[in-house]
Design a protein that fits this description.
The chain is built from two helices and two strands, in the order βαβα. By secondary structure, it is α+β, with helices and mostly antiparallel strands. The protein has a domain at 11-46. It has a two-stranded parallel ribbon with strand order 1-2. 20% of the residues are buried.
């Protein structure tokens, strides 16, 4: 996924943020954005398979993501 963020790079470096609904929709997009901005995230959602998919996407786009 490629786009230009409106937020300053590194804005959330060193922060840990809980993202609810991270398996799809807005939650998925927010999870991607926060990691790209340096955050460590915890993902919550109803479907484990969707969360696993999003985790793989994030790790593929951001080596070393947590």
């Amino acid at each position: 996924m490629s786009y230009n963020s409106v937020f300053k790079p590194g804005l959330f470096t060193g922060k840990t943020i809980l993202v609810t609904g991270a398996g799809s929709g807005f939650g998925r997009c927010i999870a991607h954005e926060l990691v790209a901005l340096g955050a460590n995230i915890l993902m919550m959602g109803r479907t484990e398979a969707k969360l696993t998919t999003v985790k793989a996407e994030i790790e593929g786009d951001n080596p070393g993501a947590r």
